[in-house]
Amino acid sequence: MIFRNKRSSIKKTNILSQDELIKHYGINSYEFTHQEKKEIFVCSKVKEFDLIELDQLLQTVGWSRRPIRRVKRALEFSILVVGLWRHDEKFPRLVGFARCTGDGIIEATIWDVAINPVYQGLGLGKELMKYILQELKKIGISKVTLFADAEVVSFYKRQGWELEPKGSKCAFWYAN
Ligand SMILES: CC(C)(COP(=O)(O)OP(=O)(O)OC[C@H]1O[C@@H](n2cnc3c(N)ncnc32)[C@H](O)[C@@H]1OP(=O)(O)O)[C@@H](O)C(=O)NCCC(=O)NCCS
C-alpha cells in the first residue's frame, strides 16, 4: 500500500490482484481506498455502464433526466468516459462519473463530473479528476477545459484549475 500524501485519507491500494482488477474493470484502472470507509473504489475508463444505473447516479446529484438513447450516443461520441465504482466482486456500484469530449489529440472538455452524495466529501471527486487528467495526458492532450457551476468552482480551484479571466474569452451559443 502506498500513501498518496500524509494529509489525505485516500490510499492507493493493491488489494485486488492485477488479474482481478483487469478482469472486473479493464486495463489501466486505478484502485484506491478510504481509510475510514474500508471500501475499495476503482476508476475505470473501460468498464461498461448500465445506463439505468448511470441515470440514477446523475439523478442523485439533482440533474434533470436525459433520454437514455441520447446519453448512449453521447457516451459513444465522448473521447473518455470514466466510472468510479465501489468494488464488489458480484455487484460493483457506480458511485462516480465523468466524461470528456474533444478532438482526441489537442483539446478536451470535461463534462458531467458527479459523485453520489453518500460518497461526497471523502476525496473521491479529487481522485476521479486526477485519473481523468492522467488519462488525457497519456493520449497527449494538454489543454483541458470545463464549465463549473458557481457552487463548485472552488472544488476545481483547489486542484489547480484557473478561472477564465473576467469572462473575456468565453462565448456561448444556445439553440433555444
Ligand atoms: C463537486 C463534486 C464532484 C465533488 O466531489 P467530492 O467527492 O465530494 O469531492 P472531494 O471529497 O474529492 O473534495 C476534494 C476537495 O474539494 C473540496 N470540495 C468538495 N466539494 C466542494 C464544493 N462543492 N465546493 C467547494 N469545495 C469542495 C473538499 O472540501 C476537498 O477539499 P480538500 O482537498 O482541501 O480536502 C461532488 O460534490 C458532486 O458530485 N457534486 C454534484 C454534481 C456537481 O455539481 N458536479 C460538478 C459539475 S461542474
Automatic annotation (TrEMBL):
Pfam families, sorted: Acetyltransf_1
One GO MF term attached to the UniProt entry: N-acetyltransferase activity
Family annotation (CDD domains): NAT_SF
Species of origin: Prochlorococcus marinus subsp. pastoris (strain CCMP1986 / NIES-2087 / MED4)
All residue ranges annotated as the N-acetyltransferase domain in the record: 44-176
InterPro entries, alphabetized: Acyl_CoA_acyltransferase (IPR016181), GNAT_dom (IPR000182), NSI-like (IPR045039)
GO CC aspect terms: cytoplasm
Acyltransferase found in the keyword field: yes
Name assigned to this protein: Possible acetyltransferase
Keywords noted in UniProt: Acyltransferase, Transferase
PANTHER family associated with the record: ACYL-COA N-ACYLTRANSFERASE, GCN5-RELATED N-ACETYLTRANSFERASE 2, CHLOROPLASTIC
